[in-house]
């Protein structure tokens, strides 16, 4: 409290009106753009406090370091991807390990190697990757949990696109047709990839079954959470608070679940015109995922924060990337079928798709970034007319208090100070309200989503 070196180079400022907050957050305050930076603050639950102490100058250096590290991580992960693809090729295994030929030729082992082993091995290699990418995003210096998850999800999708999707196609066909790749010109590479796409349909079917179907089943069973709870309950739980923390289900991890869903969406778009046999497997995954994740989000997981749908622009961008990739790969496939005359006509598709993305970006993305002054003034006027005595200051008094100053002892002291104050209870299906202290869902009205009565502390 008294050490001047402990003061963070950041602060949260509250305004009496939305109009004043919008003007300050969306304008440049000084002639030097790096001297005084203002931006919309994340909601109190969304703040990632550890990164608020990072100086602004070091943020650019950190992001450069992470960019280089992410490039090399993508590059070197091709090695295990290529190893996985060799497992799908029995001839390659027999050439590399001839003493295993009698074992491989047995029908059960052969069916397992060709069916589930490649997808299972790839799933194992990808288990720790989202955690590594999250640590990389935290090192970049982002100040909110939602921005950390969005940045990690973007990295994870890039990785899945280049290594799992394109890597599985290119490395698999390269191992099978290495001589063709080495002696082919650059103009023939799209044609070779077009030939390789149908050859990898079986691998992606098994990958959807191993990663998608099995992942949905494990999500509803929650075996990991079940085991961890009993371990914590046996070794760590001593008080009722410890038991509540051990039973905490956590929140859904958007940074690894959402990119996986969009990978299956990409596979469906690519193979819809190439190998439609893959589509029923993807449709079954989406049907199961809708039922399971809907139940988990409503009844199991906590909502750690509310970001105001900030995920959607990134999701929209990845959908556009999947559409353009599927159209370009379809052009490469048609060129192998002697339909070169149709290629110039189909080139219009990616151009129109990109134009549609630019239109949506200019038309709708500002709504996710800026708050219009017209809407801010309208809501301020309505609030003053409907609730002239509304006191926002008491509600915001300790909303952005650093977690180190929030303890059970302090809360008990304040409760003892005013025993007559009634606790505000929000209706919820979950047993614990430890991470959801107030209602965060916007009800569609013009009123603030705050408790009707706030105890005086």
TrEMBL record:
InterPro entries linked: Csc1-like (IPR045122), CSC1/OSCA1-like_7TM (IPR003864), CSC1/OSCA1-like_cyt (IPR027815)
CSC1/OSCA1-like cytosolic domain: residues covered: 6-51
Domain CSC1/OSCA1-like 7TM region: start-end pairs: 62-334
Keyword line: Ion channel, Ion transport, Membrane, Transmembrane, Transmembrane helix, Transport
Keyword flag Aminoacyl-tRNA synthetase: no
Listed transmembrane segments: 64-88, 112-135, 156-175, 264-293, 314-336
Assigned GO CC terms: plasma membrane
GO terms, molecular function: calcium-activated cation channel activity
Protein name stated in the entry: CSC1/OSCA1-like 7TM region domain-containing protein
């Amino acid at each position: 409290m008294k050490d001047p070196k402990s003061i963070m180079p950041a602060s949260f400022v509250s305004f009496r009106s939305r109009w004043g907050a919008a003007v300050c957050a969306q304008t440049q305050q000084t002639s030097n753009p790096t001297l005084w930076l203002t931006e919309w603050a994340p909601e109190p639950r969304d703040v990632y406090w550890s990164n608020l102490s990072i100086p602004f100058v070091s943020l650019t250096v950190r992001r450069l370091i992470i960019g280089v590290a992410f490039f090399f991580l993508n590059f070197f992960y091709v090695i295990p991807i290529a190893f996985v693809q060799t497992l799908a090729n029995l001839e390659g295994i027999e050439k590399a390990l001839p003493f295993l030929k009698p074992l491989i030729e047995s029908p059960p082992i052969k069916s397992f190697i060709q069916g589930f082993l490649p997808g299972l091995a790839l799933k194992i290699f990808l288990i720790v990757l989202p955690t590594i990418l999250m640590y990389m995003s935290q090192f970049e210096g982002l100040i909110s949990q939602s921005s950390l998850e969005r940045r990690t999800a973007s990295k994870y999708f890039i990785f899945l696109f280049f290594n799992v999707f394109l890597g599985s196609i290119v490395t698999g066909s390269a191992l099978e047709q290495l001589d063709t790749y080495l002696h082919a010109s650059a103009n023939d590479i799209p044609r070779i990839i077009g030939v390789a796409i149908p050859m990898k349909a079986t691998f992606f079917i098994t990958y959807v079954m191993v990663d998608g179907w099995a992942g949905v089943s494990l999500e509803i069973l929650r075996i990991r959470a079940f085991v961890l709870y009993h371990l914590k309950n046996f070794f760590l739980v001593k008080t009722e608070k410890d038991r509540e923390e051990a039973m905490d289900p956590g929140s859904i991890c958007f940074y690894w679940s959402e990119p996986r869903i969009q990978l299956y969406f990409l596979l469906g778009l690519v193979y819809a015109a190439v190998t439609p046999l893959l589509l029923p497997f993807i449709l079954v995954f989406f049907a199961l995922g809708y039922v399971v994740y809907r139940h988990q989000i409503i009844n199991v997981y906590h909502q750690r924060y509310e970001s105001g749908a900030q995920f959607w622009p990134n999701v929209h961008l990845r959908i556009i990337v999947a559409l353009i990739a599927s159209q370009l790969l379809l052009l490469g496939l048609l060129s192998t079928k002697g339909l070169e005359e149709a290629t110039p006509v189909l080139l219009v598709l990616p151009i129109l798709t990109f134009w549609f993305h630019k239109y949506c970006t200019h038309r709708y993305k500002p709504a996710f970034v800026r708050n219009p002054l017209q809407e801010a003034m309208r809501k301020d006027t309505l609030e003053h007319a409907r609730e002239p005595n509304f006191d926002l200051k008491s509600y915001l008094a300790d909303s952005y208090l650093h977690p180190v100053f929030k303890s059970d002892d302090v809360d008990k002291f304040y409760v003892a100070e005013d025993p007559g104050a009634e606790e505000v209870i929000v209706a919820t299906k979950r047993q614990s309200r430890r991470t959801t202290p107030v209602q965060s869902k916007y009800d569609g009205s013009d009123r603030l989503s705050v408790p009707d009565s706030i105890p005086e502390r």
